[in-house]
Amino acid sequence: LHVIFSKAEMDLSLSLCVSRQPGNYQRTVKRTEDAFQACNDIVACFQERARVERQYAQQLSEWSNKWKPLVDSSPLYGSLLKAWQCFLSSADRLASLHATICRSLVSEDGDQVRTWQKDSFHKKLFGGFKESQDIDTGFARAQKPWAKRLKKLDKARRAYHKVSRKEQLAREREAHAQGNPDIAIEKQRKIQEERELAQQEVRARYEKVLEEVSRYAPRYMEEMESIFDQSQEEERKRISFLKQAFLSIHRHLDVTNNERCAVCVCVCVCEQEEKRPV
Predict the structure, then answer these.
(1) Which burial class, exposed, middle or buried, applies to 22 when counting CB atoms under 10 A from its CB (0-12, 13-18, 19+)?
(2) Does position 70 have pLDDT exceeding 90, yes or no?
(3) Among residues 137, 138, 145, which one has the least CA distance to residue 215?
(4) pTM score, two decimals?
(5) Which parts of the sequence belong to the F-BAR domain (predicted)?
(6) What is the distance between the alpha carbons of residues 3 and 203, in angstroms, rounded to a whole number?
(7) What backbone torsions phi and psi does residue 247 show, to the nearest 5 degrees?
(8) Residue 14: pLDDT band by 50, 70, 90 thresholds?
(9) Exposed/middle/buried for 6, CB within 10 Å: 0-12, 13-18, 19+?
(10) What is the rounded average pLDDT of the residues 85-94?
């Protein structure tokens, strides 16, 4: 005996099947390519910021070198002259600090991302990545039997709707026959039996296929979730690494917490204290 589905149950089961249509995993597969491109963009961003730091360091050095002769030959003397000279020397130290930031962005942060990118993404000979192919193959393998069942279900659904239209026509002929005394009762009964038989056969076939699909759905979802969990684990590793990369760059760029920056200020203050009259 087949399970008897109500029309609402059949529509609900069909909507669940549609929500699991084959090929709906491409967005997950594409995350590998997106992450690889994100690494390229991040490194390019680091390198551009490094150029900004280098240019700033060069401009500070040029500015300091331009003013040193003028300051040294100025008529000022004592603590006032020393304060002006300290102003220039702090720029030299700051230029050295930003030059160091430039080197850190390229040789530490940028190289770290490049090394991780090389170890984490393996390009195939004819394009794409091995990691993408593994995930895509896993999803495709899990969806193959599901797609076959969905195709069979769609065929049964179309047959069911087709016979439903025929049933409607049979109802109309039956109604016409009942109101027509020229049509024999035997013929009327034959028309009714034809309608009922067609309805029962196709409905039973549709319910059987729908029951099979519904019964297979948990296994299908389990296999799909298993592949997705593998992809999620890789995504978590990528996110974790890139977060650390950004934390590293923020530490390098935060001059307020940089000891060398603090030294620039302290040296100038100490020099001023030494020249202060007793």
Answers:
(1) middle
(2) yes
(3) 145
(4) 0.69
(5) 10-278
(6) 11
(7) -65, -40
(8) very low
(9) exposed
(10) 92
Confidence at 246, pLDDT banded by 50, 70, 90: very high
CB 50 within 8 A of CB 102: yes
Q: Which residue shows structure tokens 């109802």?
A: 171
List own/partner pairs for 222-230 with CB under 8 A and 24 or more apart. 223/142, 224/20, 224/25, 224/139, 224/142, 224/143, 226/142, 227/25, 227/135, 227/138, 227/139, 227/142, 228/25, 228/28, 230/135, 230/138
Q: CA angle at residue 235 from 231 to 241, to 5 degrees?
A: 150
Residues present in the chain in total: 278
With CA atoms as reference, report the closest residue to 150 among 212, 99, 94. Answer: 212
DSSP at 255: G
At 20 the pLDDT is 55
Q: How far is 197 from 194, CA to CA, in rounded Å?
A: 5
Tally the C-alpha atoms within 13 A of residue 22's C-alpha that lie toward its C-beta: 15
Per-residue pLDDT tens digits for 175-202: 666 666 655 666 666 766 776 776 677 7
Across 91-107, average pLDDT:
91
H runs (alpha helix) in the chain: 7-19, 26-72, 78-103, 111-120, 130-178, 185-253, 259-275
Token representation of residue 20 = 């699991």
What domains can you pick out in the chain, each with its CATH number?
A: 7-16+26-275 (1.20.1270.60)
Name the amino acid, one letter, at 23: G
Residue 105 has pLDDT above 70, yes or no: yes
Phi and psi torsions of 240, nearest 5° = -60, -45
- Per cent of the chain over pLDDT 70 is 75
